[in-house]
Each structure stands twice: as C-alpha cells, then as structure tokens.
Amino acid sequence: MKKARVGIVAVLLLSAGLFWRTQATRYELQQTYFSYTQEETAALTQDTPPDINLNDIYLWDQKAFRLVSNNKIGDVDASRIYAYLSVAQRDFAVLSYNASGQYLGDISSISQKVLCTFFTKDCGTLSLNEAKGDALSEGISSLVMKRVEERIAKDAAAKPFTLRTGKDLWSGQQPSIGIDAMNRLPWHLSSADEYRPAAPPQVGSETLKDELAATKKALTDITEDQRASVVFWAGGPGTKTPPGIWLNIADQHMKDNDTELETVLHLHADITTAMADAVIAVFDTKYTYLQKRPYMLDGSINTVMPTPNHPSYPSGHATISGAAHTVMTHYFPAKKSLWQQTATVASNTRFWGGIHFAVDNGAGARLGEKVGAKALEQSK
Q1: pTM: predicted TM-score of the whole model, two decimal places
Q2: Residue 16 burial class via C-beta count within 10 angstroms: exposed 0-12, middle 13-18, buried 19 and up
Q3: Which CATH number fits the domain 47-153+176-377, given the four candidates 1.10.10.10, 3.30.2350.10, 1.10.606.20, 3.30.1330.30?
Q4: Distance (Å, rounded) from C-alpha 148 to C-alpha 77?
Q5: Region 126-151 average pLDDT
C-alpha cells in the first residue's frame, strides 16, 4: 500500500508542477523526419514572420487532448495523432531555421492543418492566434502537410489482418480494437515484430493458473490508493488516453523547468513516435498470440474498469509507459527514478484492476523499453 501511495503522489505532484526545477540538456534540431527536395525548400518565401511561440506548442497539445477526449478516441489512434502533430511541428521548425537562420513562423499554421486532417468536423473550431498569414509559415505548412498526407495514405493502404480462432484463443466483438495497428508504418522500428516477445504461458498450464491466482488476489486486496490509480490511468475513450497522460507529464515538466524550444520539439517528436511505435509493436504481439483475458478464464472476476476488446498479452499500458519513461529518462536523467516509478504504477494498475496478468506487464515493459531505445537511437 505504501508503494502504491508513493507512486500516485509522484504522478499527482508532477502534474501539479511541484517538483524542483532541473536544467535539461539543450538538444539542437538538425534533421527533418520527412524528406524534402532542394527545389521545394528553395521555393519557400522569406518574409518577416513572427518567432515560433513555444507556448503555442503546449497549447496545441491541450487542443489535441480535448479533441481526442471529446471524440472518444482510444489510445491506438490517439498515439498516432500525437505523433503526427509533434513530427509536423518539428519539421516546421527545422525547415524554418534552414530557410531563415532563425526559428520563425506561426507554428499554429501546421498544427491546425494536422488536427484538421484527423478531426474534419471540428476544423472550424481550431484556431489559436489571430491568423498571421505570413508567406513563410504557409509555405512550410503546405510542404509538411504534403508529406503527412502521403504517409497517412500509406497507412490506409495496409492489408487487413485475419484472426485465428480456437477454444484456447482470445475472441471478442467485432471490430477488434487495434487489429489494424500493426499494419501501420512504424516511425523507428524496422517492422512491427522487430522486438516481439516470446509466447505467453499456455491456457491450462500451471504457470498461467498461478498468474490467474495472482491477478485475483491483487484484485481482492486492492487498496483505495490503488483503485484511484487504476481509474486515473485507465485512459479509455473520453480521456486524453495513456499516451496523452505521458505527453502531458512531459509538457508539465518542461514548462516548470523553462525548457528550450529546440529540446521541447526534440522530445515531443521522440516520445510521441516512440509511443506510437509501442502501440504498433504491442498489437502485433497481442494478435499473434491471442492470449485470453483473466475474466475469460474465471467468470468470477469483476474488473475495476471495463476490459478492452483486444487480447491480454502483453499490456498496452506497460508497453506505452516503457517507451515513454525510456525517452523521459534520456532527456531528464536526474528524474530517472520518478519516470520509472510512474511507468511502474501505470503498468500495475491493469494488474490491480484485474484486467491483466503480471506476465503481461513484464513483457510489455521490456518491449516498450526496447522500442523507446530504438526511437532514441534513430532520433533526428
């Protein structure tokens, strides 16, 4: 109970910005995520746009959170939206610097275009500043959006996945959540199965029986602190989702520590693409092994929060959090224990709440850490 309370308090204090300030290393932006031709960049008009407003970046994250919540977007699609927004903003800044020698332009221009692509019916409500209308911002935004739209089209062309069936395999209502995620283009992984974990314990095995007993005991012994944490991290439709929670944690920490524009854009792209790849990797594993959920093996289990409509192994929360804490530790190593503890609490909530086996959490955490490390290795 003491460990649970410490973990929850750490998250809440971090969200409230009560931790002491730490100076982050400045990460200079050097490369774009997408490729642009010399002709395209040479055509960018240089006029007198405003400086990129760092606060606008945080405000667009909040807009993205509200859109995800209001439209009841799940973490599978939310992770993708956050990644596209962050990558597009980063490319905007790099192209601006390459064209002018400074970080100039209205970053709201590209931010609005990206979110309008995913939330067409809300597009009319998406404004932040009075339109600047400068040529450089519009030119860069149009160029970046061309690459964004090309990549989204490739995602849409993915082949459908066919589920295996069997009495010992997971099955659920159609459509199954996340079944198309493993066909998306990874940002860093060579393929969705690059780090696929070994198979989980088989249904009927003594190992899985022990796992089931441990899950039931955790659910029976759940404390009020643990229950509150389960609800906080559940992140279902109608919330900013677990990837959004992590991005919000990162934003709050960077704002509290007056982090430089370059580092904010750098970290944003790394943490969101790492989480998006974590989603791709975890659903590849889920639908490869089709492990049943605890309640499917014991009908007496009454979970704290609804069980998502996808296989159990590994845990998505653990995988996403493994990737996120790995990136956060790289940028803010002085807080390594806090990021690790936050990830552990996020992962454990699914075990405490009866939704996952402990083995799901362990495999997910290791998978996420590998994905996060790969993202940092390939960081632009």
Answers
A1: 0.92
A2: exposed
A3: 1.10.606.20
A4: 15
A5: 87
